[in-house]
Amino acid sequence: xxxxxxxxxxxxxxxxxxxxxxxxxxxxxxxxxxxxxxxxxxxxxxxxxxxxxxxxxxxxxxxxxxxxxxxxxxxxxxxxxxxxxxxxxxxxxxxxxxxxxxxxxxxxxxxxxxxxxxxxxxxxxxxxxxxxxxxxxxxxxxxxxxxxxxxxxxxxxxxxxxxxxxxxxxxxxxxxxxxxxxxxxxxxxxxxxxxxxxxxxxxxxxxxxxxxxxxxxxxxxxxxxxxxxxxxxxxxxxxxxxxxxxxxxxxxxxxxxxxxxxxxxxxxxxxxxxxxxxxxxxxxxxxxxxxxxxxxxxxxxxxxxxxxxxxxxxxxxxxxxxxxxxxxxxxxxxxxxxxxxxxxxxxxxxxxxxxxxxxxxxxxxxxxxxxxxxxxxxxxxxxxxxxxxxxxxxxxxxxxxxxxxxxxxxxxxxxxxxxxxxxxxxxxxxxxxxxxxxxxxxxxxxxxxxxxxxxxxxxxxxxxxxxxxxxxxxxxxxxxxxx
Amino acid sequence: xxxxxxxxxxxxxxxxxxxxxxxxxxxxxxxxxxxxxxxxxxxxxxxxxxxxxxxxxxxxxxxxxxxxxxxxxxxxxxxxxxxxxxxxxxxxxxxxxxxxxxxxxxxxxxxxxxxxxxxxxxxxxxxxxxxxxxxxxxxxxxxxxxxxxxxxx
Lengths: 483, 153
Hints:
The complex is a heterodimer. By secondary structure, chain A is an alpha+beta fold.
């Protein structure tokens, strides 16, 4: 239902979605004196307090409790924290069984999370059109009109969750990654049902990609131009520069693909990044130190993972990567909507990696843990489904965490949200009216980055969307509520 | 509800956000009973593959925290319905039921148990008032699910 309360002299538009895991986010569109869009901002107003949540905890319990931060990617936090705590317990190299178990869990997570995003959230926009009414542009309509895509949505997700359960002990809240290794291996009984499904999953991922490429082909102008802007990109890459979503060194490139830095250890991140605070948002604005605030912002996530890597070590995804760049001019790819295409290539890569690991006998090994000499600090990165995730902990001699600093991928994409929304506002704001079309396009632009706006909360009784028009002096003149 | 009915209790919410953990806490209480034919799951949020589990049951109870509304709890009958809201990672029970209906051709009886909460900050543990509401809500759910499934295996 929409409720529109009219006042007068619109100047500022505020969109305030409130959902369980994404918390409060609102979009403000500021008009200049002539009524044109000056800039737009996505405000993250719930993104606070979670680092304090960790202080005082024992280091060994952090990989489990840190998952409370996020309902979308608990596994990524679990593994990033475990990697940081490996450093704390003095372990620089895990046993093959431990590392491969964690990798398998991670690929299961990235597979299911990216699949959820693409099929459940993005597909209704893409297949029904950004202007389609809400009663059509949703997952239920998608199941009716495109049942095969609905099948992929449910079953690829389910497979990813089963991989997490087999490796993590539970499909949510895995507990198996511990400082210095893993507390279980993959039994044959757990492995074999997954082996039986994985080829079908790979096939469906490939079919989904073909389906999406056909969409891009038939909407090439929209794909190129919607909320499009150029940026730097950041991602972990492996030792050979290839895609590695679990571990590696940091690589940043500029908009033309030139290297800004590479081979950077996650432990050195403070030398390369500034986490800027701005008064109107609880979320920090990280940027690359050497480029400064105005030029140093960057994007992370599937598009960055593709743009930053030199190749992919699984054949089907590598062929798709080559085609992705060939069809986009060979240079780094920038359009916001290209995130979806890149996301599907990552999904295919994860499915292929899962298959490789399911046929690796190291997963049935019994050497699970390594111990070393305690250190006071642990820093680690992982490529979460939404991009590079930093975990940094200081631990005292009693084993208690005294300080935690997390840079989640949504934070890194902070400036990108604003650019995307600004572009949409300039193109779709008509006069002083908050139209359904404007709302829809703002939603689509934000959703391409799949933000996890707060790792937060929601409960029955909250409203998912509030839009407010404000005058030049900031006073609201109209509110639109979408319940 | 009959003795042969398969019942699913889905408690969801984030226990790291105080009373948002009411759903998982209720699920834990129900799991402790060990009733036959009653499956219990907890999660941060509803997810699309829950549809596969729901389709295998005759009755489903969604248990969530409520920021507003009746105290100590409210029980509402749910029907399948489209999601007309701002689409995000949040999935409503009505939408899940619609997916089950659409994809699996099943329409289990469905209820929402909305337990009133009060505090939703980054802390673990329920507030005192929410704990009281939880006890009342679980008692009511046990009664509604019925003695037909209460016999021990």
